[in-house]
Design goal:
Blueprint lengths: L9 H20 L9 H12 L3 E2 H7 L4 H13 L3 E5 L7 E5 L1 H22 L4 H14 L10
Antiparallel strand pairs: 1-3, 2-3
Helix pairs in contact: 1-5
Length: 150
């Protein structure tokens, strides 16, 4: 029996590309070492810059996180003073999220480094290949009936 060509398996290649992405992000975010921040944390802060006052469920959907993961990440960001959670005055079970001035400063300070990390990630590709990769990854990332949570 011949072995599976795992090195060319799409899932494996996506995982390897993700490892490269994480490493480049960490190198960019590392330009401000006192602010250790993950891609997910940056995505959350960035989303709150665009939509302050969003509830936790909507935010989790916007950055593609499950509720349990988003809750723990939000707690870490809140403990760092980068966001605050305020009970909704109409529904006390809902928490509305606001990025703090300090959180905005983190995003502003890291913005160029993070943008550069994304440029470096895509650098081996032509502009047309970059557009096609983004299109295809977007298609793969869409919720599906045949996937968990889809």
């Amino acid at each position: 029996m011949k072995s599976f060509d795992f090195a060319q398996a799409p899932g494996h290649l996506i995982r390897r590309a993700h490892q490269v992405s994480v490493a480049l992000f960490a190198a960019g975010a590392g330009t401000v070492p006192e602010w250790e921040i993950t891609q997910v944390q940056f995505a959350i802060l960035n989303a709150l810059m665009d939509s302050p006052g969003m509830d936790q469920v909507t935010l989790a959907q916007k950055v593609a996180l499950d509720a349990a993961t988003s809750g723990s990440v939000l707690a870490r960001l809140e403990s760092r003073g980068w966001l605050c959670r305020i009970p909704d005055q109409f529904d006390r079970r809902r928490r509305l999220l606001w990025i703090t001035d300090e959180g905005q400063a983190v995003v502003a300070r890291l913005f160029d480094a993070i943008a550069e990390s994304q440029r470096r990630l895509m650098a081996p590709l032509t502009e047309a290949e970059q557009a096609e990769l983004k299109r295809l990854l977007g298609k793969l990332a869409q919720p599906r009936e045949d996937s968990p949570g889809g």
